[in-house]
Design goal:
- It is a single chain.
- 43% of the residues lie in helices and 20% in strands.
- It has ten helices and twelve strands.
Length: 291
């Protein structure tokens, strides 16, 4: 058998599977009005905190929301939401996602790990397959928003989302106030463009600290970078999220910060960011009504 004949025969075997996979993805995703990717060029910027609390805020605002955690090597959303240990179960419609605060739907690899010490040692193909299965095999149902918490950087997970998920509305980039973050997030913006994921907005985390004793505001990590990124790339600036020691406490306790401290400046700014995001995606791709 010649090389060309072997390749053609192989293609005839895998093509039906590819077609079926794409059909399943399309069927799942057409029931979700808006798909938002939350990205960062580097770790340590609080991306999962922003993604989780942004999803909770959208749910609180009355939008039926799901959170898909594809940060496979560091799945932390279930911990922050207080739903670690939930057991997933399957139905004829697919795997039922975990139920988070305010009935937020959540899917994460964390639910499938046997114990806390189990590392995820996967190469690219396994991660790409898992991203696809989080879409095809999970019964998300009808949603207004699906927030996709990406891993740091520009690796296989992001590539798979860009290539496999139809009609992703765009990406929200999480940064911190530093020149290093400005440089790295800029690369993420260009990466998203190459994948045909529309850069939508940027949100700056850990922007400043307000000291109640002195009444002064301190830019602990440096000068603001979020506005500069927004201006440079022509995207929306969703706002600044200040440092608050209670954020770490809430994350460790498994209590969404926006629900535990709704009157705090950080929570108010996250709710404001959620409202801005809704207006942004609706203006770009208006779809009437809620799920």
């Amino acid at each position: 058998m010649g090389a060309s004949e072997s390749k053609a025969r192989h293609a005839s075997v895998i093509n039906p599977k590819i077609i079926e996979r794409k059909k399943k993805i399309e069927e799942r995703m057409k029931r979700i009005k808006h798909k938002i990717v939350v990205m960062s060029g580097k770790g340590g910027v609080g991306k999962s905190f922003i993604a989780s609390n942004l999803a909770v805020a959208l749910q609180k605002l009355g939008y039926k929301t799901g959170l898909m955690d594809v940060d496979f090597h560091g799945p932390s959303a279930p911990k922050m939401l207080g739903i670690r240990g939930q057991r997933l179960f399957g139905t004829e419609s697919g795997i039922q996602p975990a139920i988070g605060p305010l009935n937020l739907l959540v899917m994460s690899l964390d639910f499938l790990l046997p114990d806390d010490d189990s590392p995820v040692i996967w190469r690219g193909p396994l991660k790409s397959t898992a991203v696809t299965q989080f879409v095809t095999d999970v019964n998300w149902g009808d949603l207004d928003f699906l927030v996709i918490d990406m891993p740091p950087g520009t690796g296989d997970e992001a590539i798979t989302v860009g290539q496999e998920l139809p009609q992703v509305d765009g990406a929200v980039f999480v940064t911190i106030p530093s020149e290093v973050s400005l440089l790295v997030v800029g690369r993420s913006v260009m990466f998203a463009k190459k994948l045909n994921i529309k850069p939508l907005a940027v949100i700056e985390n850990m922007s400043y600290f307000f000291c109640p004793d002195s009444g002064k505001t301190y830019r602990v990590l440096g000068k603001a970078s979020g506005k500069l990124i927004a201006e440079k790339y022509g995207i929306e600036f969703l706002g600044e999220i200040p440092l608050d020691p209670r954020i770490a406490e809430a994350n460790d306790a498994g209590e969404p910060f926006v629900l535990k401290y709704p009157e705090s400046p950080a929570s108010q700014n996250i709710f404001s960011a959620a409202e801005k995001l809704v207006k942004l995606v609706e203006s770009n791709n208006p779809r009437k009504g809620k799920a």
